[in-house]
Design the sequence.
């Protein structure tokens, strides 16, 4: 870790790669979403990347609606959207809806999932739900300094292997791990790193069968829909906002946006 | 189009059928499967080496600060200490700023105005009115804010605020309001405008509105000096000098606690009447205590809070200063506008145990509570024609010692009852114009802005009326 710190404190290194843009969001090449449980330090990471000073505080729910900022890394312009912290994407509070809709309809190029190193298991619940929604994600295991204080040891490589996405340890309050995070974001954004996100394993055969059959019908109606299985599951659960999106055809716009993005 | 829509309905029907097929436990199963995977992965990658030292320390502290018996006393004690530091620490820089801006710069400006032959009324309006009120707001408001906001932000950074919310949650829930209202209420102790903005953390529009409307019941920074001064003059003087400080501090804390009581009472009435509804539940995670980052906190609290609030106060203080000067110097017949108003309102103000001076001062000082005391003193001098004190008509001033202030107020016919009622009215009156503007910006509703403005005045008049009548019963 000590060599790593040297790199980070070296101004030449930072200046060469990262230009904080604050609120200048013109002509962005990539869109990042910052998601995670409440009070894991999303806003601190956001501030570190964009140079903005979104108010941070040690209490859950600081970020009320989404905040946006930007930065340039290796000549590419990134727009960052700081989503409100949520415990899950399943129920229907405003926070969860804002976060879910952005990941679903905003189709960010990379979703940065900020998790609390001292509460990995609880944070993984949200992480797994996000990975059902998007294929391109990076996990930032924040508050590593606190994990150390609590004598917790986290096998970052194993975590990355299990989740199928890059996992970066960080202590955002001390600005540690931000360069590694930027590098990982770039790899996923440019497609250099192809994520193979973990899919929920312990589901009944019956449920899996139902999901598959609904997903197949969705594919016929909305060809190229990126999150078929997730949408199918939400429909099975009777999620009203998704039912509405299906009826109005808003679901279809997801893959249109995707096509435009790639062409 | 017809075709696609029927296809969509078909998908929905299939989903519905499958849902029935899978039975009641279906939703639980989905959640369980996520938890199962999460726990399996966590077991694989996380290892606890040795003791969870810091964690168990957090638990111990939490057991105390959120305990049923110690939680509230500790909370009040902590708040009292914060306020004591604020008030005590602000004294010296306030005096310094006052002597610089008022004792030194004000005469310099006046001389300069005379030197360039500025008409007396123009230099009066600009320098005695606008400049002086701005100087007062900076001298009285900046030091306490620069002390209070960083301490408050440090507590926030440390993780104490969620514990306050945890303690207060059940009270607010019983009042039909959101538990997070405890957070916005605490913010209001610094500045009501900041507290109103902070109500954004509340999801439900109904509960957010309640939090916004009742935020004014948190005594703000601008009102603490009034409370402390009046308490030391009228209540501290009732007891021997050794305990006067503690007793007057106790009086101020009771007013603050009364404010919390009104906050709960009004929340309850609103949620039982026009803003009917169930309190929504929320999960609040008690975050670990984190060592606060001192410098960063100082910086952000200064930029984000202190300067923004100060700027808004100044924005309103200058025109208010001009108005004060004008009402004190524009004469109709033999008397100034201010004297006309005071003579007219004195009789009915007495029903509320107040007087015309206080009423006029509160009208003029709508922009910023900080200028209430200077305005009251200036108007008292004006209406009782005390000679040899003050700096001339319409010049806001503050006296060097509490004793001088007491003399003026006693000469103006003030009694213990006036003092108590002023403290009550200072708690229960309209929010300052900055807060009113913020309420409008946040609610986008003229109706609720007007309600938030006048409801506290009505409450204040009712409370002071009954206080006065009960007092008179015992003193007739």
Sequence:
């Amino acid at each position: 870790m000590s060599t790593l710190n040297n790199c980070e404190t070296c101004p030449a290194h930072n200046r060469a790669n990262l230009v904080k843009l604050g609120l200048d969001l013109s002509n962005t090449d990539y869109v990042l979403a910052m998601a995670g449980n409440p009070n894991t330090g999303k806003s601190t990471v956001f501030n570190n990347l964009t140079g903005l000073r979104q108010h941070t505080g040690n209490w859950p729910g600081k970020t009320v609606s989404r905040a946006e900022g930007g930065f340039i890394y290796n000549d590419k312009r990134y727009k960052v959207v700081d989503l409100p912290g949520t415990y899950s994407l399943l129920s229907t509070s405003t926070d969860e809806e804002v976060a879910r809709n952005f990941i679903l309809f905003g189709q960010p190029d990379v979703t940065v999932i900020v998790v609390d190193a001292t509460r990995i298991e609880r944070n993984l619940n949200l992480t797994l739900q996000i990975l059902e929604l998007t294929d391109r994600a990076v996990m930032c295991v924040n508050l590593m300094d606190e994990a150390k204080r609590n004598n917790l040891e986290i096998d970052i490589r194993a975590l990355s292997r299990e989740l199928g996405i890059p996992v970066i340890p960080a202590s955002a309050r001390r600005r540690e791990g931000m360069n590694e995070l930027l590098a990982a974001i770039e790899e996923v954004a440019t497609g250099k790193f192809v994520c193979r996100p973990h899919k929920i394993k312990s589901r009944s055969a019956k449920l899996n069968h139902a999901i598959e059959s609904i997903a197949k019908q969705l594919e016929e109606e909305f060809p190229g829909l990126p999150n078929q299985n997730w949408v199918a599951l939400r429909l099975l659960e009777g999620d009203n906002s998704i039912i509405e999106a299906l009826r109005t055809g808003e679901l279809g716009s997801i893959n249109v946006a995707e096509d435009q993005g790639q062409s | 189009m017809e075709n696609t829509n029927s296809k969509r309905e078909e998908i929905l029907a299939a989903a519905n059928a499958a849902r029935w097929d899978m039975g009641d436990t279906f939703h639980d199963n989905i959640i369980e499967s996520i938890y199962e995977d999460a726990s399996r992965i966590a077991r694989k990658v996380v290892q606890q080496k040795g003791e969870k030292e810091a964690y168990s320390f957090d638990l111990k502290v939490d057991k105390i600060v959120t305990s049923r018996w110690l939680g509230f006393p500790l909370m009040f004690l902590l708040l009292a200490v914060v306020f004591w530091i604020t008030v005590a620490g602000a004294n010296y820089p306030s005096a310094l700023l006052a002597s610089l801006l008022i004792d030194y710069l004000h005469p310099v400006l006046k001389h300069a105005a005379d030197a360039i032959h500025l008409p007396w009324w123009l230099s009066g309006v600009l320098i005695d009115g606008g400049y002086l009120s701005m100087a007062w707001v900076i001298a009285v408001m900046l030091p306490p804010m620069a002390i209070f906001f960083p301490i408050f932000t440090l507590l926030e950074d440390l993780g104490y605020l969620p514990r306050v919310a945890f303690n207060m949650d059940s009270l607010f829930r019983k009042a039909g309001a959101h538990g997070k209202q405890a957070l916005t209420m605490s913010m209001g102790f610094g500045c009501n405008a900041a507290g109103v903005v902070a109500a954004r953390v509340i999801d439900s529009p109904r509960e957010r509105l309640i939090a916004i409307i009742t935020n004014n019941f948190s005594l703000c920074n601008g009102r603490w000096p009034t409370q402390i001064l009046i308490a030391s003059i009228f209540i501290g003087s009732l007891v021997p000098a050794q305990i006067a400080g503690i007793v007057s501090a106790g009086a101020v804390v009771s007013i603050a606690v009364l404010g919390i009581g009104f906050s709960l009472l009004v929340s309850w009435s609103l949620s039982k009447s026009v803003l009917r509804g169930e309190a929504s539940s929320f999960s609040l995670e008690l975050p670990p205590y984190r060592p606060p980052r001192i410098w960063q906190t100082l910086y952000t609290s200064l930029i984000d809070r202190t300067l923004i609030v100060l700027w808004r106060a100044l924005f309103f203080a200058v025109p208010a200063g001009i108005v004060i000067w004008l009402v004190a110097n524009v004469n109709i017949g033999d008397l100034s506008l201010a004297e006309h108003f005071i003579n007219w309102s004195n009789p009915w103000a007495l029903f509320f145990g107040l007087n015309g001076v206080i009423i006029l001062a509160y009208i003029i000082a709508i922009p910023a509570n900080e200028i209430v005391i200077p305005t009251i003193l200036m108007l008292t001098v004006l209406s009782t024609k005390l000679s040899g004190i003050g700096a001339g008509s319409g010049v806001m001033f503050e006296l060097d010692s509490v004793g001088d202030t007491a003399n003026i107020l006693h000469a103006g016919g003030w009694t213990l009852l006036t003092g108590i009622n002023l403290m009550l009215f200072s708690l229960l009156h309209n929010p300052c114009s900055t807060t009113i503007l913020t309420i409008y910006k946040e609610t986008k509703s003229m109706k609720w802005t007007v309600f938030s403005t006048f409801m506290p005045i009505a409450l204040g008049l009712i409370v002071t009326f009954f206080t006065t009548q009960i007092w008179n019963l015992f003193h007739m």
Residues 31 and 232 of chain A are 26 Å apart (CA to CA). Chain A touches chain B through 66 residues (CB under 8 Å). The radius of gyration of chain A is 18 Å. DSSP finds twelve helices and eight strands in chain A.
